[in-house]
Amino acid sequence: MAWRAFLSDCKGSATVEFTMLAIPLFIPLMIFASQFSQVTNNQDALRTLARESARAFVSSSSDEIAFFVANEVVSQGATLLGIESGSSSPQVLMDIHCSESPCISPNSRILVKLTLANRKGDPTSVSAIEYVSPWA
Amino acid sequence: MHVKFFRQFLRDSSGSSESALVLIPLISLFLIISQVTVTIHARNIGKIVAQDAASSRALSGKFLDGDTFLHINSPDHNQNLDLIISHSRSSVPSIFPGIQEALGRNPNIDVTGIAVIENQR
User: Considering the domain boundaries, does residue A31 fall inside one?
Assistant: First the structure.
């Protein structure tokens, strides 16, 4: 009886309507917008870092120098583009694959893959390809 | 008949609390989320513009006064690598009314783009 009276009572229906609409619809939208912002920002920054580190890699004269320079570009560029690299912050992991050995050989295809290991959620991963000059 | 109904509709106060409690907060939430979305989009566009400017200046060697440079250390002394850092600033599009007054300033989007310069400086 009390339950029926409660269901048929219209008092406070606007408040109930607001909470039933706002919480399930708009709060997840807000969370989605925030996550989307973070993911697109990280992807943009990583793509730039991958391309520029690949560019620095192929312009080097030897493998040892190339790996050193690519690491420098990633570490310095990450700070500039807002990706902090520290013990408590997300880390950028670099993986380089070469089609030839040594990597700095004429027409060698260099694939730079960067992965941002997030503490929560899936890691963001991007890659860039560059070719060493035929006259290297 | 229609005039009588319209007058009655205007005098009827039911629904006013509905508007205050549901419509106004919901529209505010909708505008806030729209503002966030538009701001994210504007920032992404700004980043593309800044990155595009950095890449084209790194290739052409035509630098601007606002550009900054960062030297990349290399064991090879003949490898002269620098990073050009281009800055782009734009104002946030205003969707939510009164946001500028609430913040007390005009919010800006500051983004940077980087590119490697090879032996041009």
Answer: yes
- pLDDT tens-digit series, residues A101-135: 899 999 999 999 999 987 666 788 999 999 999 98
| Neighboring chain B residues of A76 at a CB cutoff of 8 Å | 70, 72, 83
Distance to chain A for B29, nearest Cα, Å: 7
Helix/strand/coil percent split, chain A, to 5: 50, 20, 30
A48 at the B interface (CB within 8 A)? yes
CA distance A65 to A87: 26
The SS3 of residue B26 is helix
Q: Does the ipTM exceed 0.85?
A: no
In this prediction the pTM is 0.80
- Domain span at residue A44 reads 13-131
Q: Count of domains in chain A?
A: 1
Q: Which of B22, B70, B72 sits opposite A14 (nearest CB)?
A: B22
